[in-house]
Amino acid sequence: MFWRTSTRSMGQHLGRRVEIYLHPISSSKWSFSSSTWGERSWSLDFRRGFVHAAESSLSTRPPASLEGGYDAVVVGAGIMGSATAYHLARTGRKVLLLEQFDLLHRRGSSHGESRIIRPTYPQDYYTRMMKQAYVLWEAAQQEAGLSVYTQTGGLDFAPTGTEGLRTLIEGCVKEGLEHEVLTPEQLSKRYPLVQLPEGYTAVLNPQAGMVHATKAVSMFLQLARSNGATIRDQTKVLDIIQNGQDGGVQVLTDAGPVRCDKCVITVGAWAGKMIKKTAGFDVPLKPIHTTVGYFEVEDLKQWSSDNFPVFIRYDKSLGVYGCPSRDYPGLIKVALHDGPPCDPDNRSLRPGIEELNSGITPFIQKYLRGVNSKPAIAEACMYTMTPDEDFVLDMLPNSSNIAIGAGFSGHGFKFGPLIGKILSDLVIHGKCLDVDLSPFTLARFKSKSVH
Q1: What pTM did the predictor assign?
Q2: What are the strands of the beta sheet with 286-296, ordered from one edge?
Q3: Is the pLDDT score of 29 beyond 60?
Q4: Phi and psi dihedrals of 215, rounded to 5?
Q5: For residue 302, what are the CA distances in angstroms to 66, 308, 362?
């Protein structure tokens, strides 16, 4: 069942009607969203009262004119774009950051309360990158005078012999990460609320935790601005024309054209469409609609972020992940690393309650204790997947002026400040000396590209 209603009173000061979409989670719990009031997404529990007004809008819309040239234009102001603008602005360059919606909107992949941050990976190149990312997170927090990271420790587990967990352990050893490998019995003594079957292996790492997502994006927006960047939201990019007469780039927007020397595309789920229009070829980027669930716990103290780690269960790849109680007191976050394909321009904000009931409810019943297996709150999000779930970090073919950061496949947020530095280095120097980018090139898709 899906209810829709509307009211004028909520939007009277905006001079327009506000449509509210109600999505039942259970007989007493609903999530709802507005399609006409800034696409805000909200959550409601009738037993608890109003729980969450999810949109934090920070408009920076300047006067209409975009006249004047820029050293660099960054398109898309999520975590990757805001971090890129920050790194570019720190070099003293004149930088413009454009966002088609409101800043801190909920239509993409950078919003919400939390993301897992962890150095443990089946691929050792991500572990090496995370070592650099942690340093950059700390430096940004110091500069901003903010804290956007809560250290909880991390728990990875899977049936013994699962390739993803096996290579993760090998990577911990190779890269010198502090970790413990535990049997189910050993883990239950440490965390009695987790009950793994016999034949499972668990890995604990103390460095993992949670990054507070919307707060982190806001931090990088503030840092970009304080370093001299111009930030403009509600400005849609219509086309990007490379190699103009002066060798630069023309960024065509609904507020007029902008000339720049360099351009960086960090538009998340819209990247495939923008690359197609700009460069004329397809990249296998698949947006998917994902749903995050929050579930009630009996013992808040044991499930709190002070006492319980973030956690991931591996199947063939990352399968289910979760965070301890912090976002909403008395609720833990659990979600599937999966979802149905979607079009970011024609996507319902309705969360996938069916996916939670079929995928997360059995997980909770099998592995966790003292958790209500039916969601109290559900929120929608998006991933942009590549076939190999590796990122795209490259210059567009036949261009020395336009870089692309895309395809973060549901595990990119934790790398945000490092991705910003990489993309900044690519457009300034044409290469990145600190990170091996060979896993992230567009060339790996060449045989599948449609020209």
Answers
A1: 0.86
A2: 180-182, 200-205, 154-159, 310-314, 318-323, 331-336, 286-296, 377-385
A3: no
A4: -60, -40
A5: 53, 7, 21
